[in-house]
Fold each of these.
Amino acid sequence: MKSASCLLLDLALAAMLATTAHAQPANVLIVMPDDLSYGDFSYYNHQPDAPRTPNIDQLGRESVRLTDFHVAPTCSPSRSQLMTGRYDDACGVWHTIMGRYFLRTNEVTMADVFQANGYRTALFGKWHLGESYPFHPKDRGFEYSVMIHGGGIDQEPDYWGNRNTVPCTLYDDDRPVVLTDANAGLPGFRPGLEIPRAFSTDYFTTRAMDYMKSCQAKQEPFFVYLPYNVAHEPNDMPPHARSGIDAHTATIENMDKNVGRLLKFLDTSGLANNTLLVFVLGDNGMANFMFRGTKASEYEAGHRVPCFIRWPAGGYAGTPANAREVPQLTSEMDLLPTLMDVLGLQDVPNRSPQVAMDGRSLKTLLDTDPKNDDPAFGTRVVVVDNQRLDDLVKYKEACVMRDELEATGPIAHKWRLIRPSASQPWELYDIRADQWERTNLLQQANAGHFKQTSHLLEAAYEVWWREVSAHASEYSRPIAGSPAEPMLCLYSHDWHMESGLPPWNQTMVAAGLNANGFNAAAFARAGDYTFDLRRWPREIANETAVASGLRVPIRVTKSNALTYGQPLPIRSARLRIWNGDQTYADEKQSVDPDSDGAVFTIRSLPAGPGMVQTWFYDAAGKELCGAYYVYV
């Protein structure tokens, strides 16, 4: 039996260790998969054919769960809101292509804030806010990144021919790295296996764990952002999937296994207790069994997803016994101000008033005391809309949301005011009483009873629109001629077009889509610039020519059929560069069909903004398409 003095010594030591642990800054890990929602996790979907996600289910059982949590209806807009705490339209990010996914340079990111507070910062997975300077993660507060390019693993900016399975090339701190079983860190890996088993998600998870382990060894706090690119199309079958399921289900279950690896790593490394883990279970909504709508919809399923938060050291659950739910209306925009509040982070010193955060701290909602809940959550309004055009359009696929409280405090109504388009009237639903949004209250016999609520939310939309559309006419521009990125590629993925879609994925490029548009760019310095116009990307220059098809086929995005691409009879090319009414260059030259393309040297370009457009023609002068890749 210990003496009293020994017991006192033990208690003092324990208190000292507890104080030291609490004094150490908390680590932060945010995980967000792609194109998933309620129907994709067995925590919510109990049907026999549902994906089996036991690791994510367990995390849900030991977390604070935000049950009315909203994101943007599509990929890039959602990522901009998460990173900035601001509305996507205000950030210049209202599409996933056409250059309308480049995050404006004056925006302050979550990584900027963490870096300013002495944190190590890294990203693993899908960024989708721009790959070129000044939009790359390294330009936006991340010291390290492992990523795909574009919004999907076979989209045009990504490495040619990429899919989630081997062979696959990922960008590890901008270095193309070929995925292997070894570097994916698969459990039980043995050299000499004949069938590669690695999947892109394996690599992202392994590199994220390696990074956290390195930070822990140096006793440096970290902010790790792990936005998996799955299960966005294309869906590839992980080689180690269970039998009898399709590629989409297998991809989700592979991700769950990696989440299990991640959680086990946090536990065994001792990081779990003081790592604030946020799991947003989808970057946008998807069609599901609970709500009306689908991805890119203004209705509930388009933007409502689950969100789990776990931080045992901070009192945010950690076990099923202290897990709980937060029913108030919340948004991904709230995560940055919440992290700043609960962790005591200072804002960056140079934040402009123009980029003030729209989200609000959830600190009072996350703790265990319902009496101190911020009353402002009973009156706040959150707006989502789905644009997906080159220019913003008022009243397009908009949803205005607000909770209304009873006099005694509980939530009485969850209002959704919806406008499908400018030519259609407003619709009003109470999602608390009408989960599937079947009854438009403004068309009922007692509609007058709801007019006041509708007018209140309509007025809130008008204020919101004035704020988010204030800079809608501006372009976010990749910059050529900068030491930060000596060689810039302008992609057809980013063409601005009056109508139609640009060739935004590799299947469309291979098909030789007859389309054209301009890139909004900028030039860092005045001087001479070389423009290398190509139909195929440089990484396959040794197996293609400007007029040829492919020597090595790629898989078509949806069907997985092999294609060798469409040869194009390209015989001449044109390049035009202008700004406003002033044309800087408009030149044309013949093209050798066995060459890579056409190279133009433009003399004495001024520094500043410029529009760049290209054309490929056949021998008769008929336009075939623009140059899908322009290297500057």
Amino acid sequence: MLKKLFDSSFVYYIPVWIVLSVLGCAGTFYLADLSNAAVFRSPVAFKVIVAILIATFLFITVLDWSKIKDTKKRIRRITYSFIFSFFLALSYIWGYQLTSNGITDLGVKGKLFTFLASGGVALGMMSVANLWFALMDKMKSAKAKNTAQKGNLKWFFMSFGIILVCWIPVFLAYYPAIMSYDFHKQSQEAYQGWIWFNAHHPLIHTALIRWFFLLGEAIGSYQLGIAFFSILQMLVLSSVYAYSCTMMFRLTEKKWPFWVATAWFAILPFHPVMALSMTKDTLFTAFVLLLVVLFLEYRMAETKKKRIFLYIALILTGILVMIFRNNAVYAFVVFTFFYAFWSQKQRLQIILLCIAIIIGGHVTKTTMQAAMQAGDGNSIEMYSVPLQQLCRVGANHYGFLTNDQYALLNYYINEEAWHKYNPYIADGVKASAAVYTYETWKNDIPAFIKTWAEFGLAFPNDYLDAFLVLTQGYWFIDDMSHAELLGYGDDSNLGLLYTFNASASHVFEGIETHSYLPGILEQYQKIVNGNSYKDWPVLYLLFKPAFYMWLLVLCMVSLLYVKDRNKLVLCAFPFIYFLTLLLGPVVNFRYAYPIIVTIPLLISWLFTHKNWYNIYHSLPKQGKNKNGKKHTKNQSAK
């Protein structure tokens, strides 16, 4: 066997394997030292074992490359494996640099060294990426089946029932609801009436809070009224999640993805906690996932009547997405252009659909605001990242700025904010600017952009670091800052998810919470408030927003690799919405949650055969002839 191996073309790859092994080991050991990993502080023998493992995996990888006869295919596999590994490695290196030192390596030399180190680390992890893309090749060349499953209500109700039953104890533990995050502001507006509403928070969500307040007032208990709101959210989310799981069964033609996804939604603690949280992100999450499922359903529709029904359902769902989150409009606009230039199927229909959603969402929001006479939200929200970058310059270079730079920076951001700079959240600098400076420059945005660009050219590393730290939880898998931002602890009601009661205010006495299952409450507090999940081997990844973001990127890259544009466009909306999060004021699990819940469905969509659309539409259909007898007919692909 060895003779056959070394007589083959693999001999020419041996020098490549040696070079890759040396560089891969060097990069891996650098990353280990940077992360201060305890296992790498062990004796040298352990590093030797790691080096042998890296060399072995790379040997198998290079051997696999040597067997690919098509040069273009081999180069494509190597390129995609390396590029994905490189950016994942870069995220770890920058993440550990920021965690350990507070800054990334300075200057051109520092960045060059970082990129070279990332290349070394990428070589160390490239074997895993190669296996993944080999799987993509195998999937692409596999013969398609013509036994695509049709939807079945029994699968929906099984998933729905399991999820809801698993959530009910959590509802009793947190009864009547989790009233944290922005509930303190919205509850004041809801309690005082429409005239107090402000468009800073989605008006539809504040209106829902008011309607359930009124229900509680009518039945004599605000607590019971808000409990009904919790039940509504649980029913909406569990039904959409069940619909998603059923779609996974139909796409993959296998039962195990259905059961795994159902268990994921039912058991992982953050799902019921989010379902009980009185935040706009809860219902927004349901509508985002429903939108993705309906897009798939629209592609599956066999009849014109069904397509028309789904088209209307998509427009209505899209409008709900728009009115529950202000930044959704940017995702829809970008998605429209992306679909226009990238899609190969149903291009005109989807473009018109997105335009209808954008117009419908805008008209709905403006109509609601006019009808409620609600105040405008503060537009300073959109400047979170540039303000944070300018503030970091002031914080790091105070005393070294020229008089002109000092005066210009102080014009946009009060000096007091520089000294209170928090790299992980932009709310402080936004609040300071809103109080002291924003009114003086908000009508001259071009001048602000010019100043921002000038400071960026003068302090590029500060700008890069400000952005990276602010968004760290979305791209660095080992990040914990997003779950420790305001504190954490079993009794803190902070941590990964906030569970404190913020219903009381100077205008409203608040709503009392009462746990009917304190034992379950205690366990959930350990996980979502005390962040105990970080000590769970492997499973801790399921609580990391960045882990799901990288899975989303992997889905997109994989579809590019297999050149499946039709699938890629349907994964684009969650990805584009993710990009809008990078411009936000802080990393928060609830912001990423709408994307997180789409990942199981998108992975199932990834593993559906490329010609699935044509196969599905060529399945035998049951009908009746003129005599009323059943017969089978083939409906050809459209």
Amino acid sequence: MNMLNRRIALLLIVLLGIALRLIRLDFQPLWWDEGYSVFFATREFGTMLARTAIDIHPPLYYALLQVWMGAFGKSDVALRMLSVVIGVSAIPLLYLVARELFNARVGIIAAFLLAIAPLHIYYSQELRMYGLVTTLALGSVFVQLKLLANAGGRTHRFAPTVAYVVVTVLALYTQYFAAFFIAAEIAVVLYLKYRARWKIDVRAWFGAWGPVGALYLAWLIYAGPKLFAYVTAKVGIEQYTRLDPLTYLAQHIAAFAVGHVTAWTWILWGALVFAALALVGIFASRRYQVGEGNSQFAIRNSLAAIYLGVPLALGFLVNLVYTFHPIRYERLLLFAMPFFLIYVACGVLALYERERPLGILAGALLASLGAVSLFDFYTVPRYADEDERPLIREMENLASENDLVYAVYPWQIGYLETYYRGAKLKVIEVEGDRWIQNREEMAREIRELRQVSPRAWILAYQKAGRLLEDRLTNEYINDYVILDQTFGNTRLEYFARGATTDFELTPIVFAPNLTLRIQYASFEPQAKPNLALARFGWNANSDAYAYSLRMVDAQGNKLAQHDAPIQNGASTLKRALALPKNLAAGEYALQLVAYERTNGSPLTTPNGSQTITLARITVAP
């Protein structure tokens, strides 16, 4: 394959990579970690630095995302396009690295494998830093290989050295585990110097690594103690068990090969095909010459092994000391995956050179496995119970200007920043630890907040203890409930402050075992109503009934409605209906209907009516 054909092939591979990363870009919802990314990126720069110092990742990706959203907006597609751009950039970089290590044919195959790699596509869509650190790692390795190729690595040119320092520092400011591939780069230099007997000026390399450390030292001093405390506490809380070497390695190979699979777990067996081809590549790659015949690297196979093996080994040691392997933890070493794919590419090429049909079959099998895994990714929701888009749409429909929103977790604020496009809200980031430890202080601050707005939303996540969420709900227990609905793992509550005056009427008996007590009903505010309030109670000796509170116009059209079962026993309810925005002039009524839960048949009052009118209002033009 001549140079022109290689360039055309690489261009087609990059275009394929772009297409695969753009498909269904908004299908998967933001999940916790992506919500954190948006949260950090929407803080002021100083605040962002302070908050990321107590997080498990440095601030560069968040700073880059902040600049990106300033230019392109905060929609999920706009934000994920940053990850697409970063991810696509890694494809030609891998070609260059593989060409330096082996030859252009290996580079083309490796670039193709990365273009269709499910794991890399996943993190070329997700709003996290794993794609960025992978691209930066490839850039750092490429520059290192160029420096080593310069007169056997004996001298350093200024411009490439500066480029190496800059790219490597940026990687460290993107992810802490980037230190693992720097350790691999150090191991490469030491291996070539003392094992391969290359005439390498090690001092020149330490002259590059010194500035890298110096430029990173300030952040380590600032964030190091906070990070240590955070990780120690998190490991103690999560209580993960240590992984044995075989499980650790198998999980990484499976992820590198076929990605994170949800529905079709049988695809994981396809990782054996990748592993077998990688083994073939390890033995076959010894004969490939760098630069199509230039044999400067007689031991390039060992270099690729170092770039792959050192990060995996150090990651395993971290697993032994600080055991932390949440779901899909293999993403932390995504930057090691390209070197695994290089070996797979060597294996495919070796089969192709031996038996052309066999090599074509191996490539087709890899592409088929990738296609099946991608179909799973494109069609199966990853976080169905964490998808808060329906919840936020409901907020957009009902929210009023300056409503309070209590967000117990920062990622909830990130979701709102990305998806919410309704009336302006006053979002409160709940100071969890302080409020839990001082309940009186919490109550006082909430009273002050209630003076700012009579309405409040509580995003009550239901899977993490719910202590603070339940306390927030109790603070609003005497308010009117506009909405109390569960969306996946989140209970969405919407409260409104209203009158406490009672004008209890004569009880209405629907049946011998069901009596209604009306205590208060009104439209508020009277001039331009946006709420219909009702306080009423039931005495029921059965759970066979339900009620419907509704607001209707003069023609009987329902404009707002709430239905709920009537609980067995005595109950008092405060319910509010959020009225349509910009209510047209006319007459409106707040009505209540009781009905049988089994068939929906309405119950009648002693005077034969099926509808009880609680309040009326006339909206002037």
